[in-house]
Amino acid sequence: MVAATTEKTDVPEFYESRISLTGLKDAGIEKGINDEIAALFEAVKDGSLPPYRGIKKMIPEKSELTGGTVSTNLSYNYNNVASIVVYGYRNYVTPDKTGKVPTVLEERYKYSQYVGITKSLNYDLNTGKQISLKDVFTDDVDYVKILNDYIGNLILRNNVEDEGYYGMAFSGAKLIAPFKGISPDQSFFLVQGGIGLILDENNPEFDIGFYPATITIGFNQLGDCIAITKRFYDETRSPFTSDAPKVKEFIQSYAGQEMVEESNSNIGHIMIFSSYRYPDQIPQDVKDHILALSVIDQDRIAGLNAAYVAGNDDGSFEQSVWATKAGPYTSVQRNTNYYANGSWESHIDSICFDQDGRELALGDLFVAGFDYETSIRKALTDSMAQMSLRETYSVDTLMQTIQFSIGNSEIYIYTDPVKADATSSYPIYAMVTFREFGCENMTLFKD
Description:
Elements: E1 2-11, E2 14-22, H1 27-46, H2 55-58, E3 64-78, E4 81-93, H3 105-110, E5 112-124, E6 129-130, H4 143-157, E7 166-168, E8 173-175, E9 188-191, E10 194-199, E11 206-207, E12 213-218, H5 228-231, E13 258-267, E14 270-279, H6 284-293, H7 298-306, E15 315-326, E16 329-340, E17 343-353, E18 359-360, H8 373-387, H9 395-399, E19 403-406, E20 410-421, E21 424-433, H10 434-437
Parallel strand pairs: 2-3, 14-15, 17-21
Antiparallel strand pairs: 1-2, 3-4, 4-5, 5-6, 7-8, 8-11, 9-10, 10-12, 13-14, 15-16, 16-17, 17-18, 19-20, 20-21
């Protein structure tokens, strides 16, 4: 299934972006879904102002609508489930103290008010019926309590501000009354790996101004109670017209607890910054590897100091080490940048581990006999064309230096640094999606 997008701009101040779904076998289901998307779009575009707290006072009836944006987004399209989100933004000029809408530009800015609207639709693509928040969870759990406990813990973790209410800056919301919990029909949409809860006029205990706020919660943060990835999926049948091989992705893991260490120092003429971070839930062997990579290369520091030319700016050594997870795999990377005498050099070191802490070679990601190198060669060639490199580099030579990391839906490729221009060298970076390789040619998803 794809989302066909159409855009329209009447004047610079008014912009529309619509989508419609295509590729469903049942034309009636497809039309029904698209009709509902279109109806929601029009409601967000032309409907009355949401009953936000104080909005009638701030934007009285005589106010002039001077700009607006309405855009539609397919936020989730996995396992026969789709989420569509419609975002609306309006700009009004309100009456001044005389009760008239000002005409002078400076005054119009002074009396401007902005309003946001966020609405969503969530579908079972097999039937075209809308799904509920309850459908996201297994039948044996109290999903409202699970979500309320999560939000309650968020509130507790936030600092109490001077005014006496809790700040939730990450979501654009502030708690101004005791949190009584979300309702079973709480507005929501799905994203890859999680749920977006929409806080709007139906959640009066939160001060959101005139803009809905979203709290995004990763599936991995809610425990073993998520059913949406299997509830509407049947391996033996498909609601889509396409018979192309299935494309798989790892469920995105939203930020959990991370260990972070940073340090700053100076040695001679070189300023040194070093940091490392990693998720808590990774094998101890991988943590040990991160710590080993984080050790500062003293020989490199000595070489930079030895090469220092009097009168130039001091040099720098910046090193960051981090780990990311994709499914059962952990990718560890070290990015090191050296600056001295007006020249930059950047290096990337990347190593991948399986769930048992075993280091993986690139060939381990593919079934025996599959030609994965052709796709990587093309990706490197395309990257070089976009980089406008000072020199021409052999793809054969670059292939001998590549390292990689595993993403949720792609493999990232890095080379040794190449000369980009007269004063800088850095790796060539490329990306190949699982779709391009063909998931059937990869071992990542094999049982």
